[in-house]
Amino acid sequence: DGQSNQRRRALRTPLYRSRDSISFSFHACFAAEDDVDLEALVNDMASLSSYESIYATCGTQHSDSTPLLHRTDGSGLHGNRVAPLPQAPSNRVTDPRSPTQKLRRSQPMHIQAVRRLQEEELQVRPASLPAIPNPFPELCSPSGSPVLSPGSLPQPSESHIIKVFSEDGVGKVVEVPADMTARDVCQFLVYKNHCLDDNCWSLVEHHSLLGLERCLEDHELVVPVQACMSPESKFLFRKNYAKYEFFRNPLNFFPEQMVAWCQETNGSIPQSRLLQNFLNSSSCPEIQGFLYMKETGRKSWKKLYMFLRRSGLYYSTKGMSKEPRHLQLLSDLEESNVFTVTTGRKMHNAPTDYQFCIKPSKGRTEQKELKMLCAEDEQSRTCWMTAFRLLKFGILLYQNYKSPHQRKTAISNFTTPVRSVSENSLVAMDFSGRTGRVIDSPVEAQSAAMEEGHTWRKRSQRMNVLGSPSPLHPSPLSSVIHRTQLWFHGRIMREESHRMIMQQGQVDGLFLLRDSQSNPKAFVLTLCHHQKIKHFQILPFEEDSQVFFSLDDGFTKFTDLIHLVEFYQLNRGILPCKLKHPCTMVAF
Description:
This protein is α+β, with helices and mostly antiparallel strands and about 600 residues long. The chain is about 35% helix and about 20% strand. A twelve-stranded mixed sheet has the order 2-1-5-3-4-10-11-12-6-7-8-9, with helices on both faces.
């Protein structure tokens, strides 16, 4: 018994060293019970006690996540290799479950742990380091580059198909990229149809079922607008002389009684400051006045006092009060567009003929989502619609207005300047001598004009002799030559001429000629002045077996309508203004 107790006291110390020592002592106890040499066993335990740290690292072979210790001395581990353990004395008993055998079997496991650690470091490194752009993207695939990805590579622009209709109903299919603007489409159609590029062409968004239309701004993208249109809607290609007319004559578009700033300063505001007030984003212009608003779901209209600001269109719930508690938001400018109503007042039971509508710009709109408004007169309606465009787009409209002029200036530096057809560049000339001279005297210029008129008259008489000598049957050329002109529209009704003038912009000098409905031998000149449409009858007069045409009861006579139009393009005469812009129709 005493010898057994001595053995247990000798084996008690390794039991508190480590788990590996415990397992080894457990096996040693069973070996000692089998009469194994105790002294050799104790020596082995003493030699293994100096490698406790190695057993703590390498002996936990059931945990693969234990990191490997890297040591540079010769007693431990070097690099990624496991150092061999010292040899035990030759007289020890070799147990297949000894720690030495376990350590040798665990060597591949530690190598796998090192490889996994290196892989984790490689995965973390790109995210921790700053991304360096690849200077040669075409030499590597997007998947192999941490910076380049398929979503970041520039994709080729997709083409879209749009259909544009002329005023005679003929359509043309145009393939456009996604970033093509309305001005680009107009320039393309002008080039394809050999039209005069005077920067007055517009692409019109027309909704036939709703009875609405508006001219797209030059900077607007065509494809997104088409995406919000219904299948019954379409694009129209037509003239619009009033698109930027408010930059030339702002006082005609903004009456002083409707501009709040003008009322505060008693109306003494120059034109330039009036436009700057609208274009400057830091200013707060305001249009105010009475408008009729159609009630939702009903045919009745209600007269309200409204205010148009940069933040939106408001109406007062209490008379003409401007207090915030009395203002109700009707529409936001950023998410809406202003349209002209083309169906007339009978369809909506409107109180006047001067209707316009505010329609949401995103998505397809139903009838109940429209804000139907009606003004007292044409000048008020034009003021509201123009101010809506200015407050919404601001400086973009001015850039659209200036860009064609800048382009013409750049082109004129390399090409021969085109002579203007305005009255300021035309003077009376005398070509009777070898060289021409400018006639400075007004009296002499008038006599030269009379002489030129007699020359044309004699020439037309000779044509009559060759054609039809009877005064009741004028020459075939003078009777039909005007039908080849763009400003002549034949036998159209009075209402149709009104509609055409309104569609192409009610600017001063916009005109057309048509056959008279009351007199088969006469013609009618339809002219716009101060946003009002007026009609003047052109009557035939007989003199010296020759038929002439006149606007002033025979005081000024012309052999054909072309001479009449050319004269009133240079002279106002009895008209309220000169003829400036011919109302034309485009046919694809």
